[in-house]
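Inputs:
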Amino acid sequence: MAEEEKREKREKRRTATKAAAMIGPMVKEFIGATHRAKQEGKKLAFTFICCFYEEIIRAMDIVPVWTENFAGICGAKRDAERFLARAESLDFSRSLCTYALCGIGFDQWREELGEMPPDPPWGGQPRPDFMLSSGQILCDPRNKWYQAVQQFMPDVPIYHLGMPWPLYEDDIEVSEVEDYYIKYIVSELRGLIKFLERQTQRKMDYDRLSELVDLSERTWNLIWETYELRRAVPTPMGTGDAMNTMVPLVFMMATQEGYHFFVELNKELKEKIARKEGVIEDEKYRLIWGGGLPSWFALKDFNYFNSKGAVFPVETTYRLIEPMYRLNIPETNDPLERLAYRWFRYWTYWYDKAKKRPGSEPDVERLIQYIEDYKIDGVVMHEAFSCRTWHLGLIWQLNQLNKIYKPIPVLVLGPNGKKREEKRELPSLILESDIVDISSYSEVDTRNQIDAFIETLDSVKKQGV
Amino acid sequence: MNEKNSNSMARVERYYQDYGLRARELKEEGKRFIGYFCSFVPVEIINAAGFFPFRLRGDVHEPITKGDTQLETIACPFMRSCFDLSLKGMYDFCEGLVIPHACDSMTRTYSVWRYSLGLPYSHFINIPHGVSEPALEFFKAELNTFRKSLGRYAGRDIPDGDLVEAIELYNKNRKKARALYELRKADPPLISGSEASRVLTVAMSLPVTEANALFDDVLAALRDREVSPLQKAPRIMVDGACIDNIDVFKLIEDSGANVVADNLCIGTRDYWLHVSTEGDPMDALSRRYLDKLNCPRTYRDKVGETYEEDLESRFGTMGALSREFKVDGVILYVYKYCDPFGFEVPARKAYLDSLNIPVLYLEDEYSAGTIGRLRTRIQAFLEMIG
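Outputs:
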């Protein structure tokens, strides 16, 4: 057995569900599949997760190369440093998104050598035929990454796709702006199809595209229903596992395999609930992972939480779905319009709730809903230094939550319609590190922080009793 | 030099040192201010709605304290400084705030600004990343949403006539600012980079008519200069995002160079772009702010067959400036955590290399505390190009 395989086996993280344990081989397989596809002459596209046009890529038989995924793998295997250092040596600041830096470092090295860099993680990231760049409202790196890497492979074309949504405003209803957002997004998606038709010399099959949009919508419903099972006490699955099950959610959308994965997970969770089998035997504290991407090299910290009696029945990270009934998509035969409405209404879904609570905002409303639904005792967030997209505004969200969950008794309306005193203090913890760059991480410090947080949770629980 | 003209430079210095002084005075007289951030906010719309636009500025000498209680330190340090000063009440005369979709640091913190400052009015302008015709049409619709929202707050619709008038006023403003650059073409230049930056920065804190009058006085004062107060020295262009404190320019100049040109937000990137006065004013504003404004946050489709052609299309302005101002070297000055510029550093360097223009890349933290470290690198660079 190779040394690397031995290390992987020795260090394998414990998951609560069988489904989550299947993810490692699954990712390895779809990275392997990109290499085989390359050899078979299929078209490979660099692309980003949560792009909302997976259906278009799949309908045209294009093989997606998820560049963030590859960087995450390098991070999880603790083998990103050499690629980060290479990007830094090219004058990309180490303060930039480390997914992008890792990917750029790897791609530049591969282009320089004309072959994969030595010992590439899981065979490495193949050269794409084209790149699908993302101009969503968030994530500057996704807007700039492929343009930056084009310096090292200038013959690889880019299609840049704008997918905006409006930010929350008190004085503007989303319905006032929806029409021109949808129109723009649809035109961008049409542009994407034209680009792909040119690149592949094939025509889009719109019937197949519609079927795949149906499949994604069914998958969204299924994921939502499955994740809602985690409300059970004890919870059958935690965020540690969800950081695995995000793989079919964001990398396998619009595929039967992705749908099937959640059928199996749904079944497994129901069985565990029937057996009252939780992530841990003695569930003391129920926490929400309230924001931030995880440190892919330190997922075992979730197990450490578990060892202290804490579980995470819910997270906001990578839960990028809502059940379709909530989105109320208008009837249309145009699959591109359906994609556009799904996108727009997903991102604006929580706006109405925020309007009803002055001083609140959608991200905070979502947290409150989860805190109530999942009977949450505390909030944990992660601030990754290299990512502004998902890690700015966390402190402020906690400040807003603290206005609602106070360490003093407040009057609430009881189920019998009478007011009663309730104290809902909600301790919080922000961990600081990165998604890929392990040099930012200290296991000892992190675990000391977790220990202190657990003590706080314990003390709040005791006071509550 | 007549007294009015010589006083103009003293006025600039006073407004620079006490940024917002004039706005506070005018606020006392009942004038209304809307703060804004970055070059992407169409000040013409704010002006036409009956408010004075006021560009928020940071302070490299003021430690960020209050701001860090509400905002992560991984945000753009320039934006954090502006936020910190706002929380400390420095811009309390602004009753509203407009933030554009320029970068993640602004977009993700919009809610934080909004609620922390408790302003009666705020608005976020969404800007597409591309510059295609559908993107322009989308952006025009966004600007119309802003126009409607601000009009609602002002209690009146903003008529096209007022918009056209504001466009003309700002075009004049930009023309006068550009005249300042003409004085920098001489060798040695008639005005130093730090003096010029002070004027350009201060002008964005004043009502446009006052800024225009100030430009006139400053230009007259400078034209009175018979000989340049500067020595011949290597001619430097500074490239980067928003520099609103003159310390970097002073550092370069104290190290033995003249800063003669810039490719900066409070500089040519913004001041040199006019709004067309032909056709629909909203079309003209959309085109000026989305297409003409050349910021790395906007994606430009690759042009031409070769990478070199693409570089020329993206950064050709820099090449043109370097020729026009006979530049000997470029200092590429980028803030830490700036993703839009950060991902372009190698490409910008490659472009300047292709023109055989020496370039020094500096990453800084928006703090006066880094001056010593920067000095050593700047001196070494100047010795090299000497």
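Remarks. Residues 280-318+350-465 of chain A form a domain with the Rossmann fold fold (CATH 3.40.50). The two ends of chain A are 54 Å apart (CA to CA).
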